[in-house]
Amino acid sequence: MVNILVLMKQVLQTADLKVDRSTKTIVTQGVPRVISETDKNALEEAVRIKEKHGGKITAITLGPPEAKEALREALAMGADEACLLTDPLFEGSDAHATANVLAAAVTKILEYDLVLCGAYSEDLFAFQVGPRLAEMCNLPQLTYAAKLTLEGDRVIVERDLENERQVVEAKLPCLVSVVREINEPRLPTLMAIMAASKKPTNVWAATDLALGPEELGFDGSLIDIVRSSVTVGERRRIVLQGEAREIAPKIAKALVQEGVLKAA
Amino acid sequence: MSQENKGVWVFSESPQLMLELLGKARGLADSLGTEVVVVTSTEDGNKLVQSGADIVLTMTDPAFGSFQVDTYTDALENLVTERKPDILLIGATRNGLEFAPRLAERLKTGCVTEATRLELDAEKKYLLMDRVTWGGNLVETHISKTKPQIATVAKGLFSATPPDATRKGEVIKVEPKFKPPSTKLVETKPKPVKGVKLGDAPIIVSFGRGVRKKEDMTLVEQLAQTVGGVVSCSRPIAEDLRWLPEDQYVGLSGQKVSPKLYFALGISGQIQHLTGIRNSRVIVAVNNDPKAPIFEFSDYNVIADLYEFVPALIDAVKQLGKT
Asked: Which of the four CATH numbers 3.40.50.1220, 2.60.120.10, 3.40.50.720, 3.80.10.10 does domain B203-322 have?
């Protein structure tokens, strides 16, 4: 029996984000909100562990009230219980403040053996919340898991590094962050989707976690964002169209003249 | 912010990245009128002095022989607490990326991962750290409210300073305390799929959904061969169709490349992909849809059927060689 907490983040589907080049803003309208990919892998891995070893899975997310949608999907995929951490005070939290709220929830739940999360979120790619949370909860961290095996109270993970796989083990309880290679997340069946609505979801605000405003949002953050700007590509955009036989030699020549191509 | 923190520190378990960070740290330290300190367990301290370090802290305990997150977190925590650096630059390898936030949390300080630009605020002298977010289309400038200011930096952004044999510096042996690690390395294995190294390739020929069948990849391979490039692809080709291994796709969540020349064949140009090719010097996009987003981000916009254009280009390049 393994009690697993899965940390998930709801993100805007980055593939659907577009830049309005005239106003230099990112168009978020109509962009769907989805569970960040690697977090979905983390949940899938939790379900597979439960199928093999038994136990209970709690999916936790921090976000606006709409993030409940992500939890519903998690419950349909196989989580037994969900936990939504939502409070206007959480807004503007950096990685430290976010990990702090999650750590408070993890500590409140108390009964867990394994914390699983994606190695990064699809929107920020900061790679921070997992290790910060592990540090706060004093847990061993096994990161970038491309394979996870449970043997008694030991977790064995294959860490996917740049040039190699590192097989590393730790004792439970610990935190494991996963990469996409670890599995293929399932699509919930219609039955599972219907059953999900009957599973419990806790909604916790700052007071439920005994957190004060000074620890949350901007005040609780260690990083301050002083500027942000939309990047617009500074490319030449030289248009070439017409007969392939006519354009191709022109481009080949231009590339050689620019010094980026050598004639074959 | 406390006034007593000083010095620009560098740590990376990757020797190459360490030298690149050292180059950047030297510039920052000169502007701040302070010293560059490198923490290492593996590299020759005197060589690091020649490459710009004022002080090299060499950790001699065999436990530091290879990177392990717990022991290194303990060690750096102790060294930083004792010597109070102003700035700490950490190499953004996968190990560096799991290490920096854990250390930052231990020290209760801010950390900016994969910073793309590091500058000093002209007046207040704190570090302005840019990072790219939101699918690659937003650049945010971060500052740390606390010290040390920690940033992780990926390979290839900064240049190492050429070694100068006359430079003077100090190599100090240190023995920071550490607890027994909570994780154990069992073994290392090769990666299951061996893709080409896109990071070092000067020319990359990349393709997307515009290539209709797996067999048609030969066309792409032929072009790559003719121009002396390597083949890569967009995310759907690797993740959905699995025509190429996952370490061969270019994009925000895949490989980030910086070739001299990048061909985007039949790639629509989602933000995901554009982020990965941002640092290419020249981009040639081939797409039969004139409205494809890739054309906003390309130097040569070839509006054509790639099945016609690619063979023509192969011929053209060969023809140039003959004249």
From this structure: 3.40.50.1220
